[in-house]
Amino acid sequence: MKRAAIAAGLAVLTGVALWGCASPKVTDYQKETPKLDLAAYFTGRTEAWGMVQKRGGEVTKRFHVVVQGRMENGNLIMDEDFTYSDGEKQQRTWTIQPLGNDRWRGTAGDVVGEANGQTSGNALHWRYVLQVPVNGKVYDLHMDDWMYLVDEHTLINRTTMSKFGVDVGEVTIFFRKP
């Protein structure tokens, strides 16, 4: 019994170690172009289209979002207006502060604490806890965002949502800047 528990524990630790090694780092993209300048890309009007999927891939929501960004006191302010396929509307305002060395910190009304991220090359890796309402309850979900600038007009965002370390869904967004 004791050997089985030790073997199971070692298997879990090995899996976690291998998973950690397989995860990309934002610096893996440092040579990719075009270089993502977060403030420059999101200053002005940007539109986006996206979807939310359950862990198994089923699309649960589709949406359109209009982002109005501006620089204010050295911070990037992003006003996001979402319209979902079911008619629901949502608004979020981000205040994103550049910290230097390609690092960023952000806050929003439905973000627990602060979001933290780093840019490198054409990519941004952004992590935060978002309060997500579902059927009258609010869940704190860990959001792991990866954004990639494809060209000067197009940015793709892929987010993994998790709770207690278990992936519960994904968000995919395509941003387009005129």
Automatic annotation (TrEMBL):
Keywords: Signal. InterPro entries: DUF3833. Residues 1-19 form the signal peptide. It holds the Pfam family DUF3833. It comes from the Bacteria. This is DUF3833 domain-containing protein. It comes from Pigmentiphaga aceris.
